[in-house]
Amino acid sequence: MISEFSEQVGPQPLLTVPDHARLNFDLNYFSLRIMSVDYQASFVGHPPGTGYPKLNFVEDSKVVLGDSKEGAFAYVHHLTLYDLEARGFVRPFCMAYISADENKIMLQFQELSHEFSRASECLKTGNRKAFAGELEKKLQDLEYTRNVLHNETEIQKNSNEKGYYTSVAIEKANELANVERCIIEHQDLLMQVRTYSHKKSREASYVSYEPDCDAEQPEVGLEQSLDPGGLPAKANWSNRRSTYTPKFTRAKSAKCFEKKLKTLEELCDVYFFTQTLEQLGNLEKSFRGDVCYLLTRQIEMKLLQQQRITSFLFEDCVAFSDEEQTEKQRHGYKPLPSHNILSQNVVEDPCESNVAASFESYKSCVESVPIKMEQQVNIESCHQAVADSIPCKNLQATLDLLDIEGKEKGSISSGESIEVLGTEKSWPNPIFAKSESQPSLQCQYPEVVKRKLVVTKRTNSEDSIEVLCTTESLIPEDLKASYPSAIYEEEPAVNNVEECGLRADAMQPFTSPQDANEFSNTNIISNPVTLSNLPEPVDSSCCTGKESPIFTESRPTLVTEYSDGIINVPPQRSKSVDKISPGDSVTQGGENGLTNLTADQVLTSCEREDSNLPGNGESGQLLLEDYLDSMSYISTSWCSDRTPSPALPTSPAKRLPGKRKKQCGKNALWFIRQYSFAQQAIFSLLSGRTLVVVGEQEGKVKKLIHALSMFVPNSGRGEDPIKQWVTFPLHIHHLQTWKLIGVQRIVSPVGSSVLHSLNRYSRYISILDSDNKSLRCPPYRGLLITRMADHRTQIKRGSTYYMHVNNLLTRVCSKAFLYTFCHHLHLPIDGRESEESVACRRLNFLKHHLGLMNDDGKIVQYLAELIKLHYLHEPAKGLNQVLRFAYVSSIVCKI
Amino acid sequence: MLKWLLGGREIQEPVEKSLVLCIGDEQPQNPYTELQVLKGHSDIVRFVAWIDDFRFVSAGDDGVVFVWNVQNGERLHELRGHSRPITAIAVFPLMYSSQPESHLLLTASSDKNIIMWDLDSGSQFHLLMEIPSSVKCLMIIERLDIWLSGGNEVCIWNKDAELLHKTMCFKDADVSSMIELPKNGIAAAVRKELVIFKLVAPSQESETWEIIEMRRLSNHEDDIRALIKVNDRTFASGSHVGELIIWDALEWTVQATESQFWNTAPQRDKQAEIKISKSPNQHEICINHLISDKENIFAAIGTGIYVYNLQTRTVIAYQQMAHDSRVLHIAKLANNQLVSCSEDGSVRLWELQELPPAEPVTSGLFSMLGIGRTNKQQSQMAKHKLECSVLKTLELIGDLIGHSGAVRMFLYFEDHGMVTCSTDHLIILWKDGERESRLRSKKLLQILEQDEQYEP
């Protein structure tokens, strides 16, 4: 919703996104509410010492406010736009994101703020442009007026030879002087606008959208050339402007109240206006859904982003690229025309640094140099690490970093309102601020949540809590002081900390570099107290919402994922659950029983939950029972099923259509229950051996294919590895691309040649005979798939099973990633080392470090191979895939 | 397996299948665990030829020649110019003297054209139109800077594709293969006969090249199918009816004849052989391909492979039913390995192993000591002696199944594995999966390191 504090009618709503606002929502009332926040002191006017108005380029302020009467909470973003005809040339506007769920806004504050800043920036850019144009016209008008007046006076002077001035003449002269003053003022304004946008664009390092707008312009104006058409600067301007005919302005004619105020479209350039609308629309879309859903989706995306290297294997390709698209949009990748260069820089960055960083860190990690670091040292080194990547990442943030100090005041309206005054403007030193603001933010959010529910002895009133995150005040001493308290406060929730023998402050490393890479926290813990903490270059790809506390949740997951077998990591799920759940105390209760679960399991179950929980955007209040239910479910067993909740997320932003997921999972469940050799079949797929399903009935075969399709790794080249139904004899090159094939069995010459071809290539394929319910494939010995496809599994729901499998597959992928990019596994440490010893090391790594026994190693090796091929693949040459196989004997399994 | 697949409804496989040596799915010694299918040809691929360490050409009945990169299977060039099947190809060894280094390729086709290609640019270098007959073989004599084409006449060309000289026409016959003999001699196989030519280079007396027919050797009873040079002093030829004749390269006399390969099989296989002999026996004994290292001649005869020792004049190892059908091409690799490909669409890897029992060792010693005893009697007795003269065995260590048609030819790259071409229009690159995986890892890590350097 965009609202304006109109000079004439007071607060009025301007527009809403989406267009059809809810009928029962009183927009007028709410706009009054949000505009009533006296958010900034008056900057406009005549500062003492200056003769004419000075424009202040005011920063936006961001406020969260709630309204108990309406049951609505809003993130409110105030901004000012310039209008020549307005009082003090400014018109205050505000954009608000309104939601019924307070938590949602609180937790998404950083994202919201980021998105809104972008939108407002867009709006303001347009406004400045329009304003500048406006000023110019005005100037021309004034000059014209002056000329006319001048001439008139001259005429009067000449005509009047009596030597005295008539009153008319005096009036004229006064008017002339007035106009001249006006001109000077306007010229100054224009210069201010120009230089501002110029400065701004320079700081932001994006291309100025008006390249011809340089210092020359104002100077030229000052010359006060008599002939307006002869202004040399005019040549620079577009035709539209040069054809503009100056009109005579009467000095006093401009009475604001008589005039209709400009609409928002007029105020901003149309192009920018539509852009902004589009952005806001996107914003609204991306924040649709309830908190849980949003959070998990963010986590998911975050995780996916970090797993970009391996994600092509099992993630839905289309969905993923979609996601990247939206991700890009969120990053401002669909920028204003003026942002092009900036965005390109950023685009190129993430992947490389991602790879490089993880690789680098991993190397140092595996070489197992246990670094025992003081915490402070840690932070220091973090700073340094961050320093590299800061310039690029911080751009968006620095846009806001202007000389104006962020002042926030919040009106505490009703009992439940919480105000977060989280502007991170005016960092004295961005590097510093960065790493420090994060912990402080995180630490304080739990506080917020906590205090709301548990009445603490703090001096703050329990109803309204102010969290001030102005980071300039945070110096290391403060930091030290604030840490322990924050973390200690958390401690009751973090039960496992003690178990792992970690001091609470030892946890800090896990929370501080939030967007550090996967490996940042892969600490080798031989002795629980010794934490080898790796300073980590911050991944620049994660710049959206990096300050958001939510992403702490991603840490534990990743850590465990990448550390299975090597690293022992204190599970921090309590925090994550904390944030997900409004029913905090319940969560805690449930958690106490969770001591031996690792974080990712919980996370996954949360994710699973999420897909089952009601996901309508506005009615985000979760039933307590629901939570109890789900929590107890978590605590009982991670692979057990939970009582199904009827509603499925209806959000359109869902990545893979929930229905498909569910169907897929359902079929897979059916398969593993029905076919005792499911594990072998899945092993074939995961180890790259083509599985051929032979059958007479197409439907039956297709069902089997569908059931198995979720286990087929993608090659990452957009070729579908699944072929549902073929009726012709297979050739070797088919086996290269298709990994899961349905083949028709018919009694005919063609049919027998089909079978003969299968016979011929029997060493490359596993054959599942759907008619006789038998499978011919290599035997499987291992644990991985046993867990993945246990026919006695308790999971009853398709989507749950889908998530379960996805979880396990992701873990395998991360292992494969590790295996692929582990330097010394593939290269000799020194020149003398033989290939054999390297190979030996490779095997050992698989066996002992990744904990993969027997055939599980083959899966990882195959996936690693796919990763390698994917990244070495040069798309231009259009090379064929390779078919990898092993000479192993097959066995025939029957039900 | 097929039986299982067919659900037991099909009749039993013919008995003879069991005769062919089979290897199970477990082949620990088989290094080829990765394959890449190269598509491009639209007809039978008959030839693959080596260019350098990483390139090869393929040519076939579709008249198109492809240049491939063996490392990654990339198609480097597509040489189109022939309208009919290609009948012969030959790659010029690197020309280091004359022009800037370029690889040249000669292709002859049944459209009666010969094209000289520049392999580096993929362009036509020379086009020789309207050759009187279609050329069946091409031979490059680098030493003399000339090349020869054999159809129903033998022509000498120089590198600029100028005809230097040609022989008279053979009646009703084509030169099917040629080899170079010492002292500018050429041996050409023309149906049943071996014709020996002598090349006369330009000298003071004559300005032009000349080719003189020296002798016709008609020892073979049937068409000569294979002709190879063994060493500087000997060459060998094999015929359709299974005669292998070892010739003296200077005197053009017979050194040894072996014609009873099909009898070398021990008695126990006899019965089976009778069964098969219902099918035309010719196939069983036709010498399809001969190769040799300095000591042995390896012959692809019928469905079998035979190793003939030049010193002892005996077959020292054989595998009579090496394939389901005719063996088309064989090659000897390092470390005593042998590769054969066959019409049955498979490629098999063999290893020449010493027989473990003690008894043959003595005879092995004997044969080692008895160097130089070469006479006809011995070869006459060969048949008799064969049972005990088999000193080695050919062990099947692996087979490569991929093609669905006859494998015409293959090419072995030491560093990159094997290239096979087949009637099913495909070329398959067989690679050592382990090594490829290692190489990829290295490459990936290298790329990462480079990226790292560029990143601050």
Automatic annotation (TrEMBL), chain A:
Residues 584-594 have a biased composition (Polar residues). One of its GO terms (cellular component) is guanyl-nucleotide exchange factor complex. The lineage of its organism: Eukaryota, Metazoa, Chordata, Craniata, Vertebrata. This is Smith-Magenis syndrome chromosome region, candidate 8a. Belongs to the SMCR8 family. InterPro entries: FLCN/SMCR8_DENN, Folliculin/SMCR8_longin. Pfam families: Folliculin. It comes from Callorhinchus milii. Keywords: Autophagy, Cytoplasm, Guanine-nucleotide releasing factor. The keyword Transit peptide does not apply. It is found in: Cytoplasm. Residues 567-594 are annotated as: Disordered. Its main location: cytoplasm. PANTHER family: GUANINE NUCLEOTIDE EXCHANGE PROTEIN SMCR8 (PTHR31334:SF1), SMITH-MAGENIS SYNDROME REGION GENE 8 PROTEIN (PTHR31334). Residues 1-868 form the UDENN FLCN/SMCR8-type domain. Signal peptide: none annotated. One of its GO terms (molecular function) is GTPase activator activity.
Automatic annotation (TrEMBL), chain B:
SUPFAM superfamilies: WD40 repeat-like. InterPro entries: WD40/YVTN_repeat-like_dom_sf, WD40_PAC1, WD40_repeat_CS, WD40_repeat_dom_sf, WD40_rpt, WDR41. Pfam families: Beta-prop_WDR41. It comes from the Eukaryota. The keyword Repeat applies. The keyword Cytoplasm does not apply. GO terms for biological process: regulation of autophagy. Keywords: Repeat, WD repeat. WD repeats lie at residues 38-78, 79-127, 320-353. One of its GO terms (cellular component) is lysosomal membrane. PANTHER family: WD REPEAT-CONTAINING PROTEIN 41, WDR41-RELATED. This is WD repeat-containing protein 41. It comes from Callorhinchus milii (Ghost shark).
